[in-house]
Write a structure and sequence with these properties.
Layout: H1 6-26, H2 35-61
Helix pairs in contact: 1-2
């Protein structure tokens, strides 16, 4: 079993993205576009993609070869 850096990177982006998006939702509302909410969503999507890729890599490497 090897270390896959996508797991911690993906989880880190998911957590920080959730915090940034929550700050955008519940914080003081700006007069212009809500940058925190937008970038929080981008970070959540990136983190989810990293975790999904890590899970798919683990799943494909655990299949026995015939």
């Amino acid at each position: 079993m090897t270390f896959d850096v996508r797991w911690p990177v993906g989880l880190l982006f998911l957590m920080i993205g959730a915090l940034v998006a929550a700050a955008g939702l519940f914080g003081p509302q700006p007069a212009g576009p809500n940058i925190d909410l937008g970038w929080g969503a981008v970070m959540i999507v990136f983190g989810a993609v990293m975790v999904l890729l890590a899970a798919l890599a683990r799943r494909s490497s655990s299949k026995p070869e015939l």
